[in-house]
């Protein structure tokens, strides 16, 4: 049986947070455990260069994401784990794909506009090119499934368009990939506004946070009097209830909702219970991380084996594409 392929990646711009974990990593794990799929997971170091970063710490930042991957249970025996820049075929394929995509299309992407708003001094060609490189990341493996959060949907749509155009113009056989959706496809910020993100202080909980840190971060989440006619649908309280559902289940969320319109919620208790539930899930992840932190040689071995396997697949796709486009 030919297995369906999966590709996903995370940028090396800090330690992984619950948004990455619930939106992307949980899907990566689910597909890794499904025997119908062959999974390729990278650290997207080239995409990291599209927003301000520190070249002195980049290599270490990449290793931190690799450690997080191994800690959550991505298993080199089951998944190919690699660093994006170690498979240069992605960049070459991206250039070939760029011949099918109009500039106007890229300039109008909401993801481009939002990132530019966050980093107005960094209007670079690389940032504009992000979706093309992402299409190459995915299509180099002819991946059909891409576990990512909902914010990446416009990029997956561009990938599908590129696949269609390449197939109709050059007779290639690229699949049209779909996003693999998880329950946490949109994890809100603790601040009560927008999504959880590394770049917004106070918005996130990291996978490496201990119980005290989790409690401290939750303490900063805005609340209200705990009572009212209707349960809030957005803002700090609504977000806390989403976290309760994600980590403690729907039943407990419903109990809090009942309390809100009745006797009232005591947020100190809610936050205490939620902090413990989050930490329970993170504890085994943190223990596994420690074991890999102590064995950097093993980590390097995993990465070089992963890059070799990924290169073999990507090289084949690149060769086919060059042939189809008349270059060889
Ligand atoms: P960040 O937005 O923190 O810089 P990345 O852009 O590197 O993180 O995203 C890595 C993966 O994590 C992507 O698949 C993205 O969709 C997912 N992700 C990031 N933040 C969230 C969130 N708040 N909710 C759900 N998924 C998220």
Automatic annotation (TrEMBL):
One term of GO molecular function: ATP binding
EC number(s) stated in the UniProt entry for this protein: 6.1.1.2
An example Gene Ontology CC term for this record: cytosol
One of the GO BP terms on file: tryptophanyl-tRNA aminoacylation
Keywords carried by this UniProt record: Aminoacyl-tRNA synthetase, ATP-binding, Ligase, Nucleotide-binding, Protein biosynthesis
InterPro entries: aa-tRNA-synth_Ic, Rossmann-like_a/b/a_fold, Trp-tRNA-ligase, Trp-tRNA_synthetase
Pfam family, one: tRNA-synt_1b
Top EC class, one word: ligase
Family: Belongs to the class-I aminoacyl-tRNA synthetase family.
NCBIfam families: trpS
Protein name: Tryptophan--tRNA ligase
Taxonomic source organism: Candidatus Woesebacteria bacterium RBG_16_42_24
